[in-house]
Design goal:
By secondary structure, the protein is α/β, with parallel strands linked by helices. 54% of the residues lie in helices and 11% in strands. The strands form two sheets. A five-stranded parallel β-sheet has the order 2-1-3-4-5, with helices on both faces. The radius of gyration is 30 Å and the shape is elongated.
Length: 548
């Protein structure tokens, strides 16, 4: 499945593209929108985009500037240029930027889908080549048996029995006297973001990449086996074995390998990692205790000092005596306000709680995790009581369950205390939206209200977002309901009303075409003329002559 970004400052055009594109048949899953090139660049940084459809004449950052900007930053990005101006300068830049196609406004269905098909064909060709390469590499790097991973997991959770599994010890070098063992634990703080933006949402591919980096950065004197913990999705474990003769250097070697690995993960994938090293072991079964020591080091990480890079813990932190802070009462107050619709008060209370945490001596990672889980639970319970389930609206206008909300909205990622606060605030906003929708659900709604508004104000810049905010309903639900009721999309109906009115006004010979264009709400006469011709297959002038 592919993602498309539409960049144009005119909402009717963006909506028309959404309506006439054969998205399902082309295998296009998500369609993002931006009103100018600057916002388009921001979306490229936030989402994985395969194809960009860009208008050439826009405010702030126009199409030419946008194409030049992405040539270096996104050299493999496919682009389709859209323009209402058949200008040589635009055409020349499109050729230089190797765009897939160049479309003139107003866009028709056939030209749009032909251009998209070209782009999808290119993407599918690339995907076939890439998948072949990845499959070959995964096959080569998965030569170690899954049994070895299960063996280590049983040791770490304390369920391994030496007498019953003596035959398996040679697999991990535990049968050789004098071997030393160490454990490295990594916590991937921005795992969801990296999986989504760098690995197309493929968790297995990302895990392979992380363990591969660990393998490549291992010291030749250390034998390390790394794997993603199957029950803790943000955790990666690496078990290291050192043969006799280098015992006095093992702690240093282990620290050096870990330092290099987390630096490489940050440099290659922008991963923010917290790493902990357990104590060195002379017996493989001692790894269970060393593993817990490493996890304790990670849990002690001070979120207030996170700066979006990486942290390595090799010895316990000297934190002194900390006063245990209870935030449960505060969270309950926020829950109550969110449940009763007092959105501003709930946001203020959350802001005060975050300020108090920020002014404290330390805010440990384990406390941050616990607080986020408790906040999640309380808000979810409040929303369910109201029948509001959770935050986002699905295509039928109903509130979906929390697990169905977009990953970027409710991800547990955070790489700094500021980022952590943003996550909690976003969670609160989503639940408040759910409560508001549940409360508005008792108010009567008639889809003909939207039709009446269009019939009366067809000459204005009509936006679906206006109706969505007015009726507390999702954009997708309104569009679907309107089309079911009247047989037209909302913007299609606006165009129909305008074109019907245009015919009526063209019958008055005293009105100039420019005046009619203004009366119908078009920005210029040329765009009106093209829209009229696309709708009726004749120009306004030709239609007027036919009437005479």
């Amino acid at each position: 499945m592919y993602n498309v970004l539409i960049i144009d400052d005119e909402e009717p055009l963006r909506e028309a593209i959404r309506i006439i594109g054969d998205w399902d048949r082309l295998g296009i899953e998500h369609i993002y929108e931006a009103t100018n090139g600057r916002l388009g660049l921001e979306l490229l940084g936030q989402h994985h985009i395969d194809v960009v459809m860009v208008d050439m004449k826009m405010p702030e950052l126009n199409g030419i500037e946008f194409l030049r900007a992405i040539e270096k930053a996104y050299p493999h990005l496919l682009t389709i240029v859209i323009s209402g101006y058949n200008d040589f300068e635009f055409t020349r830049q499109a050729i230089q930027s190797r765009v897939v196609d160049y479309l003139l406004k107003p866009i028709n269905r056939q030209d749009l889908n032909q251009a998209l098909r070209k782009a999808v064909d290119i993407l599918e060709s690339r995907e076939q080549s890439k998948n072949k390469f990845i499959s070959q590499n995964i096959t080569l790097n998965m030569s170690l048996p899954k049994l070895k991973e299960k063996l280590y997991l049983s040791i770490l959770d304390g369920s391994f029995k030496r007498q019953a599994n003596t035959a398996l010890l040679p697999l991990i070098g535990a049968d050789q006297k004098g071997n030393r063992f160490g454990v490295i634990v990594l916590r991937l703080l921005n795992r969801d973001e990296i999986r989504r933006t760098r690995f197309h949402g493929d968790a297995d591919l990302m895990d392979f990449a992380v363990t591969n980096v660990l393998a490549q950065t291992s010291d030749e004197r250390l034998s390390c086996f790394s794997f993603s913990h199957p029950r803790r999705e943000r955790e990666v474990v690496s078990i290291c074995t050192l043969a006799p003769g280098q015992e006095e250097h093992m702690a240093l070697l282990l620290a050096q390998v870990t330092q290099k690995a987390v630096a490489n993960l940050h440099g290659l994938f922008s991963m923010v990692v917290v790493a902990g090293l357990g104590k060195l072991c002379t017996d493989v079964l001692e790894l269970a205790s060393a593993y817990m020591d490493a996890k304790t080091l990670i849990h002690s990480t001070d979120v207030l000092k996170l700066e979006g890079e990486y942290i390595l813990h090799t010895v316990p932190r000297q934190m002194g005596t900390l006063e245990e802070m209870s935030w449960t009462e505060r969270l309950l107050s926020i829950q109550k306000d969110a449940q009763t619709g007092q959105a501003n008060r709930a946001k203020v209370l959350l802001g005060d709680l975050l300020k108090q945490l920020a002014s404290g001596p330390i805010f440990r990672l384990q406390d941050a995790d616990r607080m986020m889980k408790e906040f999640h639970f309380l808000l979810r319970e409040a929303a369910i009581e109201l029948g509001a389930s959770t935050s986002a609206l699905n295509q039928d206008g109903a509130l979906e369950d929390l697990e169905q909300v977009g990953e970027s909205d409710l991800s547990a990622d955070f790489t700094s205390f500021v980022h952590y606060g943003q996550r909690l605030n976003r969670m609160l906003e989503l639940y408040i939206a759910g409560v508001q929708h549940a409360q508005a659900g008792n108010q009567p709604f008639d889809i003909t209200d939207i039709k009446r508004h269009i019939d009366r104000y067809y000459f204005e810049d009509i936006k679906i977002s206006f109706f969505a905010e007015t009726y507390f309903l999702s954009r997708e639900y309104l569009m679907k309901l309107f089309k079911q009721q009247f047989g037209y999309g909302i913007h299609e109906y606006v165009q129909k009303v305008r074109m019907d009115k245009a015919k009526e006004l063209l019958g008055d010979s005293s009105l100039k075409i420019q005046e009619i264009s203004d009366m119908l709400g078009y920005k210029d006469k040329n765009y009106f003329s093209k829209a009229f011709r696309n709708y009726y297959q004749v120009s306004p002038s030709e239609y007027r002559v036919s009437l005479q």
